[in-house]
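User: Predict structure, ligand flavin mononucleotide.
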Amino acid sequence: MSGESQYDQRARYDALMEVARNRMTTRQFDPNYVVPREHYELILEAARHAPSGANAQPWHYIVITKPEIKKAIADYFVEEQRLRARLKMKFPTPNYRGLETAPGLIVVASDFRWTRAFPVLLDGSDLDRKYHENAERILLQSVAASTMSAHLAAAALGYNVWWITAIGQEHAQRALKPLLGVPDELAVIDIFCFGPAAKPPYKRWKKDLNQIMNWDRFDMANYMTIEQIDAWVKDKRSQVMYRDESKVD
Ligand SMILES: Cc1cc2nc3c(=O)[nH]c(=O)nc-3n(C[C@H](O)[C@H](O)[C@H](O)COP(=O)(O)O)c2cc1C
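Assistant: Predicted complex:
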């Protein structure tokens, strides 16, 4: 008898958790490292196996190897960051120059026409609009599931990762699509950078298990009022984004 049943393969779980726990964001990479071509394939092979609504697999990945394209993307983000500062958005923005020297950079695109594959009416009615909203959520969750598989694969290879979404707006789409030859009907969803970190990465604060886990019904201890959320955004957000978990007060 092997000590583990089919559904209690603790060693496999522990290996997975080792990767999940140590998937850490870095925003500045070693600029001299070159990602072997095979690693891009290993990483996107993991993305390929992700689940998706209606098994539509509505994702496209564009591996960027040319330094001039990385620079153009970084330039765009720095510009966007300035715009946000002018709009007084007060979001603690990182230094997006790190994009330019990220050894691995993959653009994630999707095709919202695939919402047609999900439950929608396609008759232009109000009800159709509501189903469409949900269909968009299905699409985005599908792309996120695949992207997360890619991030975990990169983490499993030993890399640090950076998930960047600051690009949803119309003007970002207009700036990035021609640069990447992305057809108009598609949307650039986010950017995935990976590589060895330039400085030692740190583990960020995560909620405790009992703060996210509810049994049979929602535990109101986990409910936050809008005032509590606003207070969190004001006092905690930048700490949890930019500090080691041991330095969050
Ligand atoms: C959906 C999503 C969007 C994100 N967008 C950005 C972004 O636009 N810019 C950025 O610097 N980090 C972004 N991040 C990274 C988060 O800031 C980071 O995951 C979070 O601070 C937790 O740190 P950890 O990844 O080390 O656990 C994003 C992460 C996710 C999952």
